[in-house]
Specification:
The protein is about 45% helix and about 15% strand. It is α/β, with parallel strands linked by helices.
């Protein structure tokens, strides 16, 4: 009973505290700079640790309300890294997020999945996602944050604004299917670029390298989707470009084949538009909100 009372008092103390403390640990330099500029304010103190040992020391010296790890923490070890979500009686273990402004490698994705299952970590992949989680965990109203942070949170929480003006390359040799999908995507504000085969898809990416996501059918003439995805991934500049494979095949292992070729996700045909839109929101919310254009849903 005393332990429960102590835990409740700790919760009340944290919620009541005006100034919240956030620890950024093992962050990549560009990510750390971006988050410091967005998060730090009169009511949020941000500290930085460059390795697991320093993180452990800072956590011993003072309690944090939230810890945000960079991808390097996935393969680090030491007392600075929580190996379990079981809190002590006075809630010494704060919520843990893993932030990356770039796409995680397959090895990092696997390690994050393990951390999520075993230690309750949560991966976030855009400043807007992180800020939305920060508001939740720190019990802070978005209005108390900097204007840039408030705007990002507003965009992130408005599902239509996530899609508005985003550049999506749709690759499909079935003209009826491509027309129907592009019409629905434009209705949600998406800026659609069309290609009829893998070769054209590569040409369109050369013409519009600021494309933010690729929807690609896997069975096409001239160059199929598998080969096109491999060629896209072979270019370093498109290493983090989200690719969603579309296929009418339902054979066992088809999803794995698409992922191996370079896809981030997979949808079976015929495509249900509500599922596609939800999937686009997930992948496009991971990219930095300031990278999207704000105009149009029409092709040039």
């Amino acid at each position: 009973m005393e332990a429960i009372d102590a835990a409740l008092r700790a919760i009340e103390s944290r919620l009541a505290a005006r100034t919240k403390k956030v620890l950024l640990a093992l962050m990549e330099e560009s990510d750390c700079s971006t988050l410091l500029d967005l998060i730090e304010s009169e009511e949020i103190f941000v500290d930085v640790a460059h390795d697991a040992g320093e993180a452990a020391q800072k956590r011993r010296e003072g309690r944090f309300d939230l810890v945000v790890w960079g991808p390097a923490a996935l393969f680090a070890s030491g007392s600075g890294l929580p190996s379990t979500v079981q809190p002590d009686p006075v809630l010494a273990a704060p919520p843990v997020l893993l932030y990356s402004g770039r796409a995680l490698t397959p090895a990092e994705q696997e390690a994050l999945a393990k951390r999520e299952e075993e230690a309750g970590w949560l991966g976030v992949f855009s400043p807007a996602q992180l800020l939305s989680r920060l508001v939740l965990h720190l019990n802070k109203a978005a209005e108390t944050m900097k204007s840039g942070a408030r705007e990002m949170i507003g965009r992130f929480l408005d599902p239509e604004r996530i899609l508005n003006g985003r550049r999506v390359l749709l690759v499909d040799d079935d003209l009826r299917s491509a027309f129907a999908l592009s019409a629905e995507l434009r209705r949600h504000g998406v800026y659609v670029i069309l290609a009829e085969n893998g070769m054209q898809a590569l040409e369109r990416l050369e013409e519009t390298p600021d494309t933010e996501l690729v929807l690609i059918d896997v069975m096409m003439p001239v160059m199929d989707g598998y080969e096109a995805m491999r060629r896209i991934r072979a270019q370093e500049r498109f290493g983090a470009l989200p690719i969603v494979a579309l296929t009418a095949k339902t054979m066992l292992g088809e999803r794995e084949r698409c992922i191996e070729a370079g896809a981030n996700d997979y949808l079976a045909k015929p495509v249900r538009i509500e599922v596609l839109v939800a999937l686009l929101r997930v992948w496009l919310s991971r990219s930095a909100p300031w990278c999207r254009i704000e105009t149009g849903g029409e092709d040039p």
